[in-house]
Amino acid sequence: MQFLQLVISGIAQGCIYGLIALGFVLIYKATETVSFAQGELMMLGAFAGFAAMTWLGLAFWMAVVCAVVAVALLGMLLERVVVRPILGQPAFSIVMLTIGIGYVARGLVTMVPGIGTETHTLPVPYKDEIYRLGELVLNAEQLVVIGATGVLCALLFALFRYSKLGIAMQASSQNQLAAYYMGIPVRRLNGLVWGLAAAVAALAGLLLAPITFVHANMGFIGLKAFPAAVVGGFGSLPGAIVGGVLIGVVESLAGFYLPDGFKDTAAYIVVLVMLMVRPNGLFGERLRKKV
Fold this sequence. Notes:
This protein has helices at about 1-30, 40-55, 60-85, 90-110, 140-160, 165-175, 175-180, 185-210, 220-230, 235-255, 260-275; strands at about 130-135, 135-140.
């Protein structure tokens, strides 16, 4: 029963990793760049939800919608103003730019008086609720994380499978030049992808906040979400969720059964093993070129 409890806890934490990893994969598929600002966008989403509830007095679900929309617009603005002008430059430049965006976001939040340097509790309606199935104790926060992740995955599947926008995004991710020649507005789609990735990160922050509180450094969890994207296969959306859940479960079990210190390194050990066994990840595509 203890093992099952640890697995459920790991799945919930892994869903958070997976949601942030979704942002990595979405941006990479659209622009072939990696955004290391996803963790900070998650942090901004949590702070936006906290501000909407405490300062504006909005109900939790309304605050979630407002926070997700606000961070999505911020993601689109960042793509238009900061990222788009340097597309085509070496990948290292774009990576350093996104790291800089993360530091700037964290610094700006800490400058907000009375909120930036403190740790806050997000007053969610399901806080501290517990359900029992025999000897198994289920935490409401963890169940909400797992359920919300499942619903979001279903919505993303429907978006990319049945909507014209999703099909256009897939076409653009496979070959931007061909998509442009076919009349698809590639630049506009890139902005929408950044907005979608930011919205997913904001939702992850709002789901994580009741478990770990709201603070300026919560964005560092993005450093563990990146291995989730690598494990699942950097070009695969389902792989991001599977990789996140795998790392979350391994981390949870390592923290309980192994000595201190293994929990923090478990994600990177899994990545090293995966790179040795399957360099393309669990769901990564193998690309070949004819010369």
